Each structure stands twice: as C-alpha cells, then as structure tokens.
Amino acid sequence: MAIQWINGHIVRKQIWYEGLFTLTVDCPGVAPFECGQFLQVGVPLADKHLHRPYSVASPHGDQLEFFIVRVADGELTPRLWEMNLGDTIDISSKATGGFTLEHAPAADAIWLLATGTGLAPYIAMLRDSRIWNSYRDIVLVHGVRHVTDLAYTDELESLVRSSDGRLRLVPVVSRDRPEHGFHGRITTAIESGALEEIADLPLSPHSSAVMMCGNPLMLDDVEAILNARGMRKHKRNEVGHYVVERYW
Ligand SMILES: Cc1cc2nc3c(=O)[nH]c(=O)nc-3n(C[C@H](O)[C@H](O)[C@H](O)COP(=O)(O)OP(=O)(O)OC[C@H]3O[C@@H](n4cnc5c(N)ncnc54)[C@H](O)[C@@H]3O)c2cc1C
Fold first, then answer.
1. What is the bridge-based pairing of β-strands 63-69 and 20-26?
2. Domain spanning 5-92: CATH superfamily
3. Closest ligand 1 atom to 73 CA
C-alpha cells in the first residue's frame, strides 16, 4: 500500500555531536502508535521519494522526535543532517513495527540494550508509563564508540535520580574510558559478568526480559550469548526472553 505522507516541519534540531542529532518535527495527524514503533522519514527528490525507517524517540503526540546519526556515504542521512528549523520533512502517517512492550516478555527486570541511535525507542518508552507499570527494575545499556556519542544523558540521569533505584543506566564505551559504566563492548560486559555487577542485578532466564536494538553485529553476538545462558527469542506463540530490532 502506498505510504501516506504528512508534511512535517522541523521545530528543533539538537546536535549532540558532529553528525549525531535529534530532529523534533511538528507533524500532527500521525495515527496513534506504541512506543518502540517506527515511522518512515524522507524527502521528495526530482526522480523519487527518498525515505528510511526511524524509530520514534518520543511517545505519540503532535511533535515527534527522531534520533539520527549521519551515515558517511548514506543517501538520506547527510540530507537530514543539513536540515534546519522550519524545513519541511515528510513523515509517514502510520507507524509500524513490533518492537514494543506489548510484544516483550513479562519479567521482574527489563534490560534495554542499544548501540548508537538504537537508544531511540527506549527514550520513547521511558517517557511513557507502560514500562514503569510493567517492570520492577529497568537497566538501560547504551553502547557507543566515544563518550561524545552518549546522547540524552541529562534526561536519563534525571530519570535515574527520580526512579527510586528502579532505573540503572550503564554506558558502555569501546574507544574511550567513560566516567561511569563499562569500557569495552556490550558483549564483553555481559560475558565477563561486569554488566550484572555494575547493574547489581542478575541477567537470567528466571527474572529478566531483554530488548535489544541497533547494530546487527552486536545483536547477533548478544543473541548467541543469551542463548548460551538458556534464554530464547520471544515469539508470538512461544514465550521466551528477548526481542530484537535490527537497524540494517
Ligand atoms: C526499524 C528501523 C528503525 C530505525 N531507526 C533508526 C533511528 O532511530 N535512527 C537512525 O539513525 N537510524 C535508524 N534506522 C536506520 C535508517 O533506517 C537508515 O538505514 C540509516 O539512517 C541510513 O540511511 P541512509 O540513507 O543515510 O544510508 P543508506 O544509503 O541507506 O546506506 C545504508 C547503509 O549504511 C549502513 N548503516 C545504516 N545505518 C547505520 C548506522 N546507524 N550506523 C552505521 N552504518 C549504518 C548500513 O550498512 C546500510 O546498509 C532504522 C532502521 C530500521 C530498519
């Protein structure tokens, strides 16, 4: 079915670091969606409509946020990076995708694993009540290369402070040594036991649900590690432990 486009207007551009940014788009008319779903974002060109899927980094509303990284040699993201306040941007009118809390397993604790802009769906979820009503503990693990790639830090740290100990934030930085968190990769942090030590929670099939989002290499590696711990992919007709969203 053809995508119905809504003409959005950029009302805010937050630059976290060169090439890493959040666009807030005024686009009333997007149909209600669940946190974790994605919309198509794009621009019309002379010969085609250029668009890609982006997780919405905010709950449903008239203004929606998209957390984006410019991909070198990418077709769309260098164009999005050049956009500014007042510019027009096309947003699909209906969100899709099953990477939502409705499709995540029940557990005491939920581990939200992200690389890079894979953080976006979790920002939306943490701003909404559902995750807080569904899980006692929440561990947000953000894997990046450099400390400068750690976006949304002020908002997340403020949520940690107001969460009464329920939200843990674990930055995992591979090429710099972070002030807090883990220096290395998410996979090493899990395998070595360091992640559970930092979060002060077990990552186990008995008490944990896992959502993971972003770079497909990280996702494949983490899936293998979780499988070895007796955890399984959660499916519609088969209760498991983790759900996955691949960005490419
Ligand atoms: C469900 C879904 C949700 C997504 N949500 C987001 C989001 O919230 N934020 C976001 O920035 N991207 C997101 N993406 C990725 C996005 O759709 C585009 O693929 C990305 O922005 C590159 O577009 P492009 O036209 O610039 O690159 P293209 O010209 O399409 O080149 C794509 C190639 O660049 C590489 N690539 C794609 N994304 C990245 C990346 N993040 N880092 C490094 N290499 C990459 C891959 O090798 C891919 O084959 C999502 C993808 C999916 C499937």
1. antiparallel
2. Translation factors (2.40.30.10)
3. 29
